[in-house]
Design a protein that fits this description.
The complex is a heterodimer of chains A (372) and B (398).
Chain A lengths: L1 E6 L3 H10 L5 E7 L3 H10 L4 E3 L2 H8 L3 E4 L6 H10 L3 E4 L7 H14 L3 E3 L7 H11 L9 E7 L6 H8 L11 H6 L1 H10 L5 E8 L2 H5 L8 E8 L4 E7 L7 E6 L4 E5 L4 E5 L8 H26 L7 H15 L8 H18 L17
Parallel strand pairs in A: 1-2, 1-4, 2-3, 4-5, 5-6, 7-10
Antiparallel strand pairs in A: 7-11, 8-9, 9-10, 11-12, 12-13
Chain B lengths: L4 E3 L50 E5 L6 H10 L4 E6 L6 H9 L6 E5 L5 H8 L4 E4 L9 H22 L4 E5 L15 E2 L15 H20 L3 E6 L1 E3 L11 E2 L5 E3 L8 E3 H13 L7 E4 L7 H11 L5 E3 L2 H17 L10 H7 L4 E2 L2 H7 L7 H13 L5
Parallel strand pairs in B: 2-3, 2-5, 3-4, 5-6, 6-8, 7-15, 8-13, 9-12, 11-14
Antiparallel strand pairs in B: 10-11
Helix pairs in contact in B: 1-2, 1-6, 3-4, 4-5
The chains are: A alpha/beta (372), B alpha/beta (398).
Chain lengths: 372, 398
């Protein structure tokens, strides 16, 4: 039985606890938060026997095999380091760390200790994303990807998070090197990293404050981002982040030398984009019939998954957690290669450096990292 | 539930989100235009100030910019209080609060202060020399249980600790909600009053706000026992009034493209915002009621059916279908079973507990607060609904 602990008992911890409890062969043995009441409420709601307000005591007394780190990103590295030094595997909520240097160091620590880690970019493991991956691995694209388009939107509405973020100059998301973007874009970037080669990419980024935010008097919070990328193998990518465009898409498209694929994270459809063209007027009708058929098949596939009780909202998270645990118990490969984690961190660093979010937002002063 | 053990008590490992400090509001006098407009004193007159606080004592109102807060501040101004500290969140819309203050020419008597109850430093600053606290702030508008808990229970704990440290607190008025009642196993069958039990498993209802409120009430009661906190708990029903266009969940739901009317002939426990504010203010001033709970509902409550009919006639028309209680109970029962069986593929939004709390036929009483506190609703329900519907017509529908 794997002993699991959760450190950081905010909103995202609920999703972790719920999915961990759906996985056989593991048990949450403790929750931990520096605010004791928060640790306690999570423990009560998920019937966890013990709760802690100190990580060192959790690690010493609870002796977990795996620690899920669901704290704000500024603390990921330090908590991750302590857990690895205590011999625990770690599942780190996204974004993995605040910069690539920390990512490298954490991965190095895990490697040297013979431990495993992963990052919570679970959208890469939703049912449609997994079908897409299988098709890519089967060679549907007809070769290495030529071009990728990843769109990841975040609706700045009147939700609690948005209100807190806009209303507080010292909100923790603002103190990240990449501000709001750092806490939101890693899902979309990680999907690109999966299909690029190597551990570096050329990045050209353009970021700005949307007219919507400017109207509210906001000048420092970049919420619109366009990025052009080129990986080591020559594959290019566009990444779009927007708080304003509608529909608020979470869409991914990948094009190979023969065919392409597109999938939508929210609606869970996957569409094959055939590279061959039909003759004459057939091109005006047959592709649309094919698309209609694919959407219909997608509808029934989703319905079948739902009826089979395999279509939970957080199915990607459950799958990722399950695969990560399997990599620990069975020695299977980690579900997200460390190369991808590093590449995602480096791309994000490059973006933030170019659009100028990297220096001044830390409460510690210009250019300083938050204190650990 | 599994028994809990507590381990560790230090604070060296700092894991949770940094408490959000600072704000765009200045930490001092912020508003209150001197319009010169005179306004008649509303609400119940307190024959004497029973000694909890004089009009010259500082009074803290948290959540002052919420729906209820401006009316509470206005009521305190009407009663002559001159040092009202109005806590507003950094993102709050201050329009209504500023208007209430300006209407009473209360710029010098009520100051709007920014602050965050998650910050212990802010709490200490806010409660300094304050003998009377009206705690209205709560974690509403979130579906996340942890957020609701953080913004209801943790904030209340911080406020209570600061107030106890300040050592001049004479009354803590904790504004709660009917959402904390289980509405099952009531001592008086259909009557929901202050003797009814609180929800024992609030986490099993899909209402984060109610969960936060139960935990907040438990905390206040616990502080009363352990630290002799001089508290009173006020539990309003559905607060309505101009500026809040809503159909209470007790009437029905609008989830499937059609309005499902579940309430039928159930009375809706309405309280007009001005009546509710008056009740809250009075419970802060009356002696001899420490540790008591008071429900607040108006007289002449409309049934769900009547309210829906009036709303459709006076505000906007839409299609609705009445679902008899037996069917709504069966629906909730089936949903709950499926949610359990599927490990949450459908979240447990409709459960038997939720049905009991929201749609079970229930009557309400305001007898205790009338008898013990001397409150009486000054805005009759008919007049309250009329002005409310008028306000709804003049504001965009949600």
């Amino acid at each position: 039985m794997l002993k699991v602990a959760i450190v950081g008992c905010g909103k995202i911890a609920d999703a972790h606890a719920a999915q961990i409890q759906r996985i056989p062969g593991c048990e949450i043995i403790g929750t931990c938060d520096r605010e004791e009441l928060m640790a306690r409420q999570l423990a009560e709601r998920f019937h966890v026997k013990r709760y802690y307000d100190r990580l060192d005591i959790l690690l010493r007394e609870g002796r977990p095999d795996i620690v899920h780190i669901t704290t704000p990103p500024q603390s990921h590295f330090e908590i991750g380091r302590q857990c690895l030094e205590a011999g625990c595997h770690i599942y780190v909520e996204k974004p993995f760390t605040i910069d690539a240097a920390e990512s490298e160091e954490l991965i190095g620590l895990a490697d040297r200790a013979g431990l495993r880690l992963t990052v919570g970019t679970d959208e890469q493991f939703s049912p449609a994303a997994r079908r897409m991956r299988a098709l890519v691995q089967d060679g549907f694209l007809g070769g290495p990807p030529v071009h990728i388009e990843s769109t990841w939107c975040y609706e700045l509405g009147d939700g609690a998070y948005t209100k807190a973020l806009l209303g507080d100059d010292q909100h923790w998301a603002r103190t990240l090197p990449g501000g709001l973007l750092q806490n939101t874009i890693s899902h979309g970037i990680a999907k690109i990293s999966e299909h690029l080669r190597g551990t570096s990419a050329q990045v050209t980024a353009c970021g700005f404050v949307s007219p919507f935010l400017k109207k509210l008097g906001e000048t420092g919070l970049i919420d619109e981002l366009r990025v052009i990328l080129q990986g080591e193998g020559g594959t290019t990518a566009y990444f779009t982040f927007s708080s304003q465009m509608r529909p608020s898409l979470h869409e991914f498209r990948i094009y190979g030398p023969k065919n392409g694929l597109a999938f939508d994270e929210d609606q869970q459809w996957l569409i094959k984009l055939r590279g061959e063209r039909h003759k004459s007027y057939a091109e005006k009708f047959l592709p649309q019939a094919s698309l209609a058929k694919q959407y219909s098949v997608g509808f029934f596939r989703n319905a079948r998954l739902f009826l089979a009780n395999d279509f939970h909202m957080s199915s990607g998270k459950k799958y990722l957690i399950g695969e990560f645990y399997r990599s620990i118990t069975d020695g299977a490969p980690v579900p997200i290669a460390y190369r991808e984690i590093l590449l995602t961190s480096r791309i994000m660093d490059a973006i933030f450096a170019q659009i100028g979010t990297q220096a001044p937002l830390s409460p510690g002063g210009p250019g300083r990292k938050p204190e650990r | 539930m599994t028994s809990l053990e507590k381990n560790g008590n230090g604070n060296e490992s700092r894991h949770a989100a940094e408490s959000t400090r600072g704000s765009r509001l200045s930490r001092g006098l912020r508003t209150g235009g001197e319009t010169g407009i005179m306004r008649p004193v509303r609400g119940s007159e307190l024959a004497t100030n029973d000694g909890i606080a004089t009009v010259d004592d500082p009074v803290l109102v948290t959540g002052a910019a919420g729906f209820l807060g401006p009316s509470v501040v206005g009521n305190l101004l009407d009663k002559g209080f001159r040092r009202i500290r109005c806590l507003a969140r950094p993102t709050s819309n201050l329009t209504r609060l500023e208007k209430e203050i300006a209407l009473r020419n209360g710029a010098g008597q009520a100051e709007i202060v920014g602050g965050n109850l998650l910050s212990r430093e802010d709490c200490s600053r806010l409660v300094k020399d304050v003998p009377l606290i009206y705690h209205l702030a709560a974690g509403s508008g979130t579906k996340a249980f942890s957020d609701a808990f953080l913004n209801s229970a943790v904030t209340t704990r911080n406020l209570l600790d600061a107030a106890l440290e300040n050592a001049c607190l004479r009354r803590f008025v904790n504004v709660s909600s009917f959402a904390v009642y289980t509405n099952r196993r009531k001592p008086h069958w259909r009557l929901l009053d202050e003797t009814c039990p609180m929800e024992g498993h609030p986490e099993s209802r899909a209402e984060a706000y109610g969960y936060g409120k139960v935990k907040q009430d438990e905390l206040v009661i616990d502080y009363g026992k352990k630290h002799s906190l001089p508290y009173v708990i006020v539990r309003p029903g559905s607060i309505y009034g101009p500026g809040k266009d809503f159909i209470p969940g007790r009437v029905g739901i609008d989830s499937f493209g059609l309005y499902l009317h579940f309430g039928g002939g159930n009375p809706i426990p309405f309280t007009h915002v001005e009546n509710c504010a008056d009740a809250i203010v009075l419970t802060g001033l009356k002696t001899g009621i420490e540790g008591e709970v008071f429900n607040v509902v108006d007289d002449d409550l409309p049934t769900s059916r009547r309210y829906l009919r009036l709303y459709k006639k006076n505000v906007r028309s839409f299609r609705s279908v009445y679902v008899p209680h037996a069917f709504s109970y069966l629906f909730c029962c089936l949903w709950e079973k499926y949610s359990e069986w599927s490990h949450g593929q459908l979240p447990p939004v409709f459960t038997r507990r939720e049905w009991a709390a929201t749609w079970k036929k229930t009557h309400y009483s305001n007898r205790k607060i009338k008898e013990r506190v001397g409150w009486k609703p000054s805005v009759p329900t008919s007049e309250g609904l009329r002005s409310y519907f008028e306000s709804c017509r003049n504001t965009p529908a949600r």
